[in-house]
Amino acid sequence: MDVSHLLDGLNEHQRQVVSAAPCSKLVLAGAGSGKTRVLVHRIAWLMQVEQLSPHAILAVTFTNKAAAEMRGRVERLLGSNVRSMWIGTFHGLAHRLLRAHYRDAKLPEGFQILDAEDQLRMVKRVIRAMNLDEKQWPPRQACWYINGQKDEGLRPEHIDHFNDPQARVQLDIYRAYQQACDLAGLVDFAELLLRAHELLRDNEHLLRHYQQRFGNILVDEFQDTNGIQYAWLRLLAGSQGNLMIVGDDDQSIYGWRGAKVENIQQFLQDFPTADTVRLEQNYRSTATILNAANALISNNAGRLGKDLWTDGKEGAPISVYAAFNELDEARFIAGQIKQWLDDGNALNDAAILYRSNAQSRVLEEALLQAQLPYRIYGGQRFFERQEIKDALAYLRLISNRDDDAAFERVVNTPTRGIGDRTLGILRSHARDEGSTLWQAAQSLLAKTGLAGRAAKAVEGFLALVQQLDDTVDDLPLHSQTERVIHGSGLMAMYQAEKGEKAETRVENLKELVSATRGFVPPEDAESMLPLDAFLSHAALEAGDSQADEFDDAVQLMTLHSAKGLEFPLVFMGGVEEGMFPSQMSSEEPGRLEEERRLCYVGMTRAMQQLYICHAESRRIYGRENYQRPSRFLREIPEKYQQQIRIRSQVVSAPVQQPNRFSQAPAQFAESGLHLGQRVAHPKFGDGTVLNYEGVGEQSRVQVNFDDAGSKWLVVAYARLQGL
Ligand code: ATP
Ligand code: MG
After folding, report:
1. Is residue 519 within 8 Å of residue 477, measured between CB atoms?
2. How far is C-alpha 240 from the chain's CA centre?
3. What residues bind ATP, as annotated (predicted)?
4. Together in a domain, 202 and 229
5. pTM here?
6. Phi, psi of 69 (to 5 degrees)
7. ipTM strictly over 0.90?
8. Domain match, 341 and 456 both
């Protein structure tokens, strides 16, 4: 059998890893050195040369997108389909195990997944039921605490509060929340992992079965595994299994969420036969980009240390753009992308990366204005939208009446006269009886424990859900969805709302029907009801609709979600002190290093050209702030940078910004405006000119609008009229 194609396009070190006899191994290597490529070839090698069945391999990646890509690449290499191979994220794989063994996992068959928002609501409810003050016990913090404990594998009974009253309350909230989830058949994200671990740990026969089955486990992006994920891998690999992990300590960016880069060292202790392979040649970026990224990351202490080199082209310098403000930054980026497109390149090949989701709005507006199609990863995902969650909540209740999170969500949506008081009665009854809300409602109705109007309303709701369940029983999934959207009154409710937002919501509800129509249950979901399979998919998948995957669009995403990806053209926006590194992290050395790693991840996404932008002034939470360039820019040697100025003046060294107001009044006149002048703007209305900066085309005025507040506007675009 000719297997040479499995080693084609690999260097000597990569080949050694791919073609090694089954073993445990650590591949520790920097960005763009081919770790993911090696993993893909390794899987194909194990199947073709070692004759392993796709059944015997378990591959773990970081996102659903990466998992789908890995599957596709393996299939292309092998020329055959590997549908039955378990390739997925930790969460997806844990979910698959729990579905297959729900009884052993002590879960109801129709258990549902709580996403972060559902979890927050649930925790809120628990805190209220415990008569605690939400201000003193913020639900968000409680979620954080609960997930943190679960990530460490800790149940309430494992935690000692050491008689600290504060710790005791947190623990009480955790316990009560978990009881509520168990009762309602709900599983949050952290619970998926913890329960899957317990499932194997506590069921000898299952553990043996899976250990024998998955003799070879491969993990990408290992540096970002947390305690429970690693414990799960270790359990599954057992003493006989082969675990191959690939990772880069310099790209560990989820420490804030419990990921432990120390797991790399732990792995070497736990798997003493594993050797370490380093890959040092980068195939992704130009020498300039790579050297700049290497220089940046060398500012971190305590690295495992690697040398990364390339024999690729030197490439263009990194372009640094100092924008006036965030609008100017966005406009600049849109302009460059337009140029890129005009030069005959694909929009898909351009990515804009930012530190926080909040930055995307201004960028989106600029792209819209420039008529450049774009696509956002992460952000508000389709399945997280209000109207979609409403519709899903009805579907969830149809599948599982005890789903308290779904019950709370739609009991009064659309409004049917079930107010806070009635809900309060239901909640406290549920608490007293140790029952779910649905059960509480039934028992209160039976005991006539609700007053006339409220009783009628609650009765109506229960009957509605029952009736929806009856009518959709044998229908295909998309017809079920359509019936529920209409039968619940959701469609009518959103149709009756006015405005663009409501229109979008109606569109989205229709889109949900299409999504269910196009839904193909994954292989592992064959035993599940299509409805349950779809609901799990909605909770677990990124929810970025796959359909527009092939559209040519600029890619927008946070730096975190760019991990593992690569693009010919990359923009990093908002590279300013207080933004990146973020305010909080710049005060803590550990977190500052994590921010620096994030910057390293961002820079190393770029293949040909990297732009780093920062604004001198930025509106944050409605307030104008003066911003300084990020320290990370200073950590990149000047020889790799090129400062961009508007009107394509290029200055090779960082320039000192002139005092922005020093020159104002002289040029001010040319715009015909003066300080204190009353002006009118087509969108913002009337206002007073407060300030002025810049020259010629770039000149801007600050206007305090009577209604819209203070804004900086570029005179050339603002269409201001003197009054
Ligand atoms: P990251 O740390 O960012 O996840 P990585 O180490 O996983 O990066 P890959 O994404 O596997 O790196 O590879 C980076 C790029 O280099 C890809 O485009 C890949 O196809 C290419 N590449 C990897 N190895 C080789 C090689 N031996 N010859 C040519 N190209 C290669
Ligand atoms: Mg990779």
Report:
1. yes
2. 35
3. 29-36
4. yes
5. 0.81
6. -65, -40
7. yes
8. no
